[in-house]
Amino acid sequence: MDDDVAKRGSTSDERDDGPHGSRDTRFFGQPWELVHIFGVEMWERFSFYGMQGILLIYMYYSVADGGLGIDQTVAAGIVGAYGGTVYLCTIVGAWLADRLFGSERVLFVSAIVIMSGHVALALLPGVSGLGVGLVLVAVGSGGLKANATAVVGTLYAPGDPRRDAGFSLFYLGINLGAFLGPLVTGFLQSDVGFHWGFGAAAIGMAVGLIQYSFGRRALPPESRVVANPLPRNRYAPMAGIAAAALLVIVALVLLGVIRADNLAGVVIVIVLGAAIAYFALIISSKRISADDRSRVIGFIPLFVVNVGFWSLYQQQFTVLTIYSDQRLNRSILGWEMPVSWVNSINPIFVIILSGVFAAIWTRLGRRQPSAPVKFALGAIVMGGAFLLFLPWANGAPNSTPLLAVVGILLVFTVAELFISPPGLSVTTKLAPAAFHTQMVALYFLSVSLGTSIAGWLAGFYDPSDEVPYFLVLGLIAVALGVALWLASRPVLALMRGVR
């Protein structure tokens, strides 16, 4: 253990009897400060998933139906690229936190940027509103994601067995917002139009921002620590690099190199390059110990399996949205359920089951499955969920029963709870002190890569010949999970005591 980690551990121990201490159990057995991050994350997810629930159909619906009339395959690729960019932007948010401002301050400003993006989607018409809104939401969400997770990590002393349960409770807040958002925006989109739905997302984010602004000062001082401050003489060069990168992106767009129809592929290449560079940067750093270096290497197999998992899971917002619009029987007693409401099914199951999983992990304590085994199970179950589409493959329009998709999404949820909350938790455990928030960003890069791949894969989806699509992707995910399970012992050895 290096000095920075030791200092954080001793600070947490000194606070054991205080309001931020590891013995604080006022929020369902967790530190009370978790409620502030729980709240802002819940409303951010309300706005994020509420907007995303109607985003794809907004792009490919005709202008007469209130949409933009974009080609369906191109629109799905844009959704995947946008989702990937959200997680890619966690790098920026993490760097700002670790080098300049600290996680809590970046989280607060990011919430403001997100709200501005939703306002742009609600008020600006056409493709211009779409572009401005998605860029702002992507940048703001990237800043908020990594830093909200990092702030949660500061609430627990090293070795606190409640950590995984706390992250599961945090995940409950995420999914409570994810459940409510599509219901509200889908209802408004169906009754009064898309822009009213986007407006509801903006209001939700505003509520979360107000709530967080009252509670943020109660968070522990560790949440504002700048782990690796940037020397002032490097401010100008870094600003120049940022400006140059922005100019390159603008030039590539103007020259037609980056286009709407290849956006998902471009993001995949960028994210893959960023991930490789990030692993190389952290592993080669002189600021980390031999144990830290081994733990980061042990994270690589988890990263790969996580990419595979999210490339299937995130198709809820690409292929499954198209499937729900065209193939799913959404008629209930003569009333047609809005397309986006399908996106609220998974969060219902997460809300129900996250407490169950948290209780199981808490009860098992140190006897619970290790992180590699949890990741392996998540991938295997996710592959099984795709295989469950096969009985209804190649059916007629609106022929798939709603209960069938509900059952499949239940399997999605079980897979998610094996891999996602433990993934956030194990990342904070494996992170070297000098790269604490940036390791969380590296975790989100795996989600970014998977999400971008989900958009790219949507281009291969053919409703008239679905068997190869669901069969091949399902089997690949199962194979990834089995491979990690078989390699779990060597991976644990690399993780040097972290489970």
TrEMBL record:
Residues 1-492 form the Major facilitator superfamily (MFS) profile domain. It is a multi-pass membrane protein. InterPro entries: Dipep/tripep_permease (IPR005279), MFS_dom (IPR020846), MFS_trans_sf (IPR036259), MFS_Transporters (IPR050171), POT_fam (IPR000109), PTR2_symporter_CS (IPR018456). The chain crosses the membrane at residues 46-63, 75-97, 106-124, 130-157, 169-188, 194-214, 235-258, 264-284, 296-313, 341-361, 373-393, 399-419, 440-461, 467-487. It is found in: Cell membrane; Membrane. It comes from the Bacteria. Residues 1-24 are annotated as: Disordered. Keywords: Cell membrane, Membrane, Transmembrane, Transmembrane helix, Transport. Its main location: membrane. Pfam families: PTR2. Belongs to the major facilitator superfamily. Proton-dependent oligopeptide transporter (POT/PTR) (TC 2.A.17) family. This is Peptide MFS transporter. It comes from Protaetiibacter mangrovi.
